[in-house]
Amino acid sequence: MRYWLSIVVATPAHSSVAGPLTYRSEWPLPPGSLVRVPLGKREVLGVVWELLPDSGDLPESQSKAVLGALDGLAPLSATWRRLVGFTASYYQRSLGEVALAALPPQLRELSTVQLARRLKRPVAPSPDTPNTTDLIALSAEQERAIAEFDADTRPALLFGATGSGKTEVYLRAAAKVLAGDASAQVLVMVPEINLTPQLQARFEERFAHLGKAQVVALHSGLTPAQRLKSWLAAHAGQARLVLGTRMAIFASLPNLRLIVVDEEHDPSYKQQEGARYSARDLAVYRAMIESSPDAPAASADARPEHEGKPAGICRVLLGSATPSLESWQATMVDRYQRLTMSERIGGAEQQGSLPAVRLVDMNHQPKHCTIAPPLLDAIAQRIARGEQSLIFLNRRGYAPVLACHDCGWKSECPHCSAFRVFHKIDRTLRCHHCGFTERVPRACPACGNIDIAPVGKGTERLEEHIAELLAGVTRPDGSPLRIARIDADTTRLKGALESQLASVHAREVDVLVGTQMIAKGHDFRHITLVAAINPDGALFSSDFRAPERLFGLLMQAAGRAGRDADHGEASEMWVQTFHPQHPLFGALKKHDYPTFAAQELKEREAAGMSPFGFSALVRAEARDQAVAQGFLNAAAAAAQAQQLPGIEAVTPYPAVPMTIQRVANIERAQMLVESPSRAALQRFLAAWQPLLHETRRQAEFKSLVRWAIDVDPLAI
Ligand code: ADP
Ligand code: ZN
Ligand code: ZN
Most exposed among 400, 572, 600, 641, judged by the fewest C-beta atoms under 10 Å? Predict the structure, then answer.
């Protein structure tokens, strides 16, 4: 017998082979099977996509045979294939690229024998008898959120203030799903690897009765072997609970019943290269197809053990104190269910336990001061009381630029349209875009003046500056003040962040200086003052999402203060600004996300921006800016000339240089494409892809341009 199969293999993003390839096989391999097939001179991993009725037009002499199947491994489910297929078409990438990138890299190298050996070590599932005796009593808001969640089937958004106990809600929702069905699986996603160990510990502790093997992690910080192990456990249904970062959305989970997306607004959920998918959006999509009875039926999906089972529902639970405006808007129109928890745990006895927000009007402070005198006073008072302060600034390094006051020379990067940042600690100028690093010159390279000086402040200089300003301030026991800094530079080494955070928790630090890295997620107990030094840039950014991100960041940062009941009432959030009247700060003062969201949504609606309009960016790179822009404009003109499907509802704007126009000597341009209709935009992009390929083959662009599409871009 001879069978014809369409098989998906890894194809480069821009190869002309975008779809599956046809192979023949002696055995009838079901869709979803993992196989080894020849591709050119190589032997590669492939996924059987479809069983073809016949070979089509392919003469048998030209077809290649499947070399072997990874048997012992159940086929990937129809839902998994549908998720991958959707991702590829929605984000305008090839099926092969998405499908193979979604599998652990080690799977590609594994022989059938090695695989069989790995699969022989599974663990017997332990009986699900959770220990319910020492569970904490839920707050009234948590009780209500859980009850409401149970009574609905829509995607849910848990709108819960920082410290309102969202994690406990996730834990209870997961526990219920796992206890209700012995094969059910839960996926919990967090934005950053940094946050997985903390959460993993909490989930492992709560689900200790399941045994360690059933709670697994999936993120890029794992070794390839660990990742494969987690993946196999999830695929085999042994792992009941998978914790991971955005990549985990593609885990093979044959019986997925709940997806939790913590901090759903976080930009880390958007992949920034290759297929630029949003794991948050895919979580909502995946929950829908996992539940949907009209998903390709179990018969097309050769998993006999699951056949005949009633289709379970898969819920998705998004959580945030400052939801993305897309999710918030979805709750306004009842597409998503909204669950609200507005009070901090323990907040009832301590009214107003969210920190008071103090805006410092920098127009009325001494010129050029970095830290206004009243803020400095407040920090000194905290130190005197033995409390901690957190000060954040969004720029690492010592100073953004080094400048010569004689001739005006500045520390520009020779390869990028950006300034190199002065890092005092190793006396280097470092480009944060291309990494180009040089020792600081002894004198101005342009005029020889030896008096070159830093302009502006990064975290490193801020740390030094604060030490100077607070010289003479001592701790309650008279010992000297301790200042620490946490940012990408101080945490480069493995384990550095953990040990620095530990010293903050152990109260070995009085003033913590850092980037937004410290404003996220960490549960600091003794910080009673949080200060944002210079947040104004985001108010007037060309990026329409900048205010949303700033508001989220400030709310998050505020959430770091006063988490310990001992200090609750006295905690404060200070914001230095030249625009204290800005409505964003008005809403911040009241910790009022809904008001902020209403203001922003009104503006976005008027401007036809997300979530009221849809957009994609096409980015092009070339040695020459004119070539990059010329390519984009030519492709858009061709789309107009040919009246591509969807174009009547789609607006392509002229190509412009990207904000950071040049990186590592490559010129970058982008073109924004907008539409009030998601469907029209999708139709247009699908039709435009071949034209973009064709345009690139024209003589003036041939092998000079690289391009990629970013659908639903986060920043424009
Ligand atoms: P969020 O994620 O909403 O910011 P967390 O889940 O971190 O909040 O909860 C804040 C703190 O409150 C944590 O230390 C948590 O252990 C504690 N907590 C949560 N729920 C309860 C409860 N019902 N009773 C007592 N403490 C709780
Ligand atoms: Zn000079
Ligand atoms: Zn550079």
Answer: 641
